[in-house]
Amino acid sequence: xxxxxxxxxxxxxxxxxxxxxxxxxxxxxxxxxxxxxxxxxxxxxxxxxxxxxxxxxxxxxxxxxxxxxxxxxxxxxxxxxxxxxxxxxxxxxxxxxxxxxxxxxxxxxxxxxxxxxxxxxxxxxxxxxxxxxxxxxxxxxxxxxxxxxxxxxxx
Length: 155
Fold this sequence. Notes:
Elements: E1 2-13, E2 26-37, H1 48-62, E3 66-70, H2 74-86, E4 92-95, H3 101-114, E5 119-127, E6 130-135, H4 136-152
Parallel strand pairs: 1-3, 3-4
Antiparallel strand pairs: 1-2, 2-5, 5-6
Helix pairs in contact: 3-4
């Protein structure tokens, strides 16, 4: 059985690998549609609040009104120097790769799974007209690919 839940958060990011407008720091109102696999254990499978009670505060604390940033983006080092120099801090959500919507989907899928949920897929709405659908098969493929890349890269 699949239960669908929608969430949202606001965050800034940039795609430092691109040579277009998305290379600039900009923000999105991200929509996250989760398709949870559940099993019926009686009259119902899962209370909707069981999802919301964990996921909404987690998204708010980890993502909402923060900056998604790749730790290999030169801007990250600049921000770290700024923080050390001024004592200021900003909410940064660190990524091990560029902050594309595909990599955001991978990270969210992983973290929601780590919260104890079983996802069939998630959809990430980056703009009013652009949605990425990301399945469990995509997640498994990416997990293998990223693990292989980490093993192949020099330490």
